[in-house]
């Protein structure tokens, strides 16, 4: 009797969500190797994270990332420095670029450095909800505008 695999949506949530489990960790949960998990995600249209340390995640020694490690990771993943981050933070008055929700002044879990996945150009700092919202719409402005129109047409008190 073979073990039933976890639904791909659940795997993707564990990989991309708050838990940010590694491919290796997901493979151990499923009883397969990390390459199998990678292929399942890719074949179902889920984007993989860039290789590198995860912000706020503990390193192999069990210690939180040092400021130097955070700076190196930020540079590697997004091509920006902590000075660039601080400029964006100040320009956005300490809030998410979309909803204005306050975000921490330092890069850590819960702060998303939004970037264009085609050009890798950084656009701004977002809260988790807004970042996931853009991701769920695949950064498609036409779909986002349709969603806005839909909400507008179905506002409370409208027919």
Description:
Helices cover 45% and strands 7% of the residues. It is mainly alpha-helical. Among the domains are: 8-43; 67-136, His-Me finger endonucleases (His-Me finger endonuclease fold, 3-Layer(aba) Sandwich), CATH 3.40.1800.10. The protein has a two-stranded antiparallel sheet with strand order 1-2. The mean pLDDT is 82.
Write a brief caption for the model:
By secondary structure, the chain is mainly alpha-helical. It has helices spanning 8-16, 23-30, 34-43, 67-78, 82-91, 128-136, 141-153; strands at residues 111-115, 122-127.
- Our Rg estimate from Cα atoms comes to 18 Å
What is the arithmetic mean of pLDDT? 82
- Run of helices and strands: HHHHHEEHH
By CATH, the topology of one domain is His-Me finger endonuclease fold
